[in-house]
Structures
1.
Amino acid sequence: MKITNRQHAIIVGTLIGDGCLERNGKYVRLRIDHSTKQKKYLLWKYNELKTLIPSKPIIISSYHQKEQKEYKRLHFATYSSDLFECYWKALYTNNRKTISNFIYTWLKDPLSLAVWYMDDGYKRNDCNALRISTDAFSLGEQKVLQDVLKKNFNIMATLHKKGKWWNLYIPQKEAHKFVELVSPYIIPSLKYKIALTP
């Protein structure tokens, strides 16, 4: 197996977003889950990465006791391979996903930015500002992501607190620049996330 440059860009965006790595025996694999509402997006990722994947996506059901409701999601995982060790070493500390200085080197491709946004981004309903849900990371790690957007893409993001969580915020004056960068890579079913009003 070999990871192409395009696959690397997708993996980087996925790992900053919703994807995770898990150690499976000796080696590491990439695990990707999305809700069934995002079937087209998951299938796009599957088709892009399928040379690294042993089997087709499956539907997994889980029951939420508190809500007394069943949730279904689509799932696939790559082969366990030493190819993913570099991502594990760069991104994981004590089995927890983290953001470190690797990101300045790896998060340079607009495709990675687009995948990250498709995973975790959304447009505000009342204006053209954009948000990226980054609350899984510490405030310090979010500041690193903010700095990477500035240095690698010339996007001036801020950090906003929503409730008790901090998230990356792309103000209206930066949104058009951001959308111009990512729009060639946003799949049709997720174009609503970048539908800016004039």
2.
Amino acid sequence: MVALRALGDADLAEDVAQEALSRGIAAAEAGRLTADDNVGAYLHGIARHVIADIRRAQGRESLVPSSLEPSPVPAVALRELITKEERARVRRALSRLSERDREILRLAFWDDLNSAEIASRLDEPPARIRKRKSRAVERLREAFKAGSHTPDVGRD
């Protein structure tokens, strides 16, 4: 309810709640949150920080003119930087992701669409797409790291 009142968007409020719970669980696992602590107050504080992060991000987006967005790297130059082995590792890591994660990453990095354009295509709010993209990139990073020790068998 706090996030919904602060942001006025049910989807963003849901993202705030999920992030607050995720950080709360991580804090409990790390020993920063004990049974003696007021869990509700702790989660409320986390939610306030997440809300502030969202507001800051929204403010930054409104201040950056589209002419200052980075230009895409030419595909040829990018291909030259990535070795055959790295491409295979990326493919393996991508195959470990959900179809939804792969779709968002494809639209963002291959089709070079921004969050608003992806949101329009997928009929979802831009803030949700930003969060999903962030989580998809993190899952890709984890899958890439996990796959770094597995040998490549004839995939290119």
